[in-house]
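Re: weekly structure request thread

Next one in the queue (184 aa):
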Amino acid sequence: MLIGVILAIAIGVIILAWIVSYNSLVKHRNWVEESWAQIDVQLKRRFDLIPNLVETVKGYATHEQETLTKVIEKRNVIAEPNASRSERVEQDAELNGLLRQLFALSESYPDLKANQNFLQLQEELAGTENKIAYARQAYNSMVMRYNTKVDSFPSNFIASVHSFTRNDMLDIPDEEKEPVQVRF
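Done, posted below.
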């Protein structure tokens, strides 16, 4: 009788621990998804700003059509619903480089540089880029917590049984890792 009660309690504790660990994995996985959604929100904001920026620049920089076309092409690739996260991150890095080129054009066109609409769009885009960077940091933090749960005992056993897999963190593109050249 006593052994039966002890066995029932032990089984109850194991089941309870399993449930708690499983729910914790689900919670962490959902946090990862929510933090990715925050990146998506900011990318959508930037997605909406780019056409206005391109139209503003078009009026002044007619000789820079190739850069403007590339910006729009990258914008559309990022918006492709079937693109994977890694593809979107890679395309986003290329878009960042193109946007830097676009803003560098303003140096060649003083009227554009003084255009209030351009300046406002540039400021909004810079603010959005900061929000994207923050959202990426939050995503990586959530992925690290989730991956720790997936890899730690005993939740790693539960994760493997229920097909919870590690997520990849967002990396900085190689060109952004290089030191910035400052010349006076």
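The chain has one domain: 39-176. The mean pLDDT is 85.
Next request, please.
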